[in-house]
């Protein structure tokens, strides 16, 4: 699915400028309150993801796309490598 495939209805057009928060999820880990309470600068928190795994772009609790971090002239960005279908988003 590409941006061009997206059909905008008049009803949908009225909400297109509403702000939403998007999150890029690096990974997850399971830990304890005790371990979190001892975290300090320089500590390493390992995730269940392997180096090179796709990162997830989330809107709310839904994963909408996969991608990778890229370096831009002004910092970091997120390059989308795959947009999830509606069926895949429903499972996430």
Descriptive key words:
alpha+beta, Surface presentation of antigens (SPOA), four-stranded antiparallel β-sheet, 4 strands
If classified by CATH, what would the architecture be? Roll
CATH class: Mainly Beta
Rounded to the nearest angstrom, the distance between the terminal CA atoms is 17 Å
Strand content: 25-35%
Oligomer: single chain
Q: What is the SS-derived class?
A: alpha+beta
The biggest sheet, with number of strands, parallel, antiparallel or mixed sense and barrel status, is: 4 strands, antiparallel
Using the CA coordinates, give the radius of gyration. Answer: 17 Å
Please, what is the average pLDDT? 87
- Arrangement of strands in the largest sheet: 1-2-3-4
Please give the share of residues in helix: 10-25%
Counting DSSP H or I runs of 4 or more residues, the number of helices is 3
What's the total count of β strands?
4
Number of domains: 1
Indicate the overall shape: elongated
Ranges with pLDDT <50 over ≥5 residues? none
Topology:
Blueprint: H1 10-13, E1 22-25, H2 33-37, E2 55-59, E3 62-72, E4 75-83, H3 86-91
Antiparallel strand pairs: 1-2, 2-3, 3-4
Please provide a written account of the structure:
By secondary structure, the chain is α+β, with helices and mostly antiparallel strands. It has one domain (3-91): SpoA-like (Surface presentation of antigens (SPOA)), CATH 2.30.330. Helix content is 16%, strand content 32%. The protein has three helices and four strands; from the N terminus they run αβαβββα. It has helices at 10-13, 33-37, 86-91; strands at residues 22-25, 55-59, 62-72, 75-83. It has a four-stranded antiparallel β-sheet. The protein starts with 9 loop residues before the first helix and ends with a helix.
């Amino acid at each position: 699915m590409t941006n061009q495939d997206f059909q905008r209805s008049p009803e949908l057009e009225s909400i297109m400028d509403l702000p939403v928060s998007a999150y890029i999820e690096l990974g997850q880990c399971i830990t304890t309150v005790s371990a979190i309470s001892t975290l300090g600068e320089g500590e390493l928190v390992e995730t269940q993801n392997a180096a090179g795994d796709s990162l997830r772009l989330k809107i709310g609790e839904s994963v909408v796309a996969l991608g990778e971090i890229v370096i831009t002239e002004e910092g970091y960005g997120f390059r989308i490598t795959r947009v999830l279908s509606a069926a895949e988003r429903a499972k996430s």
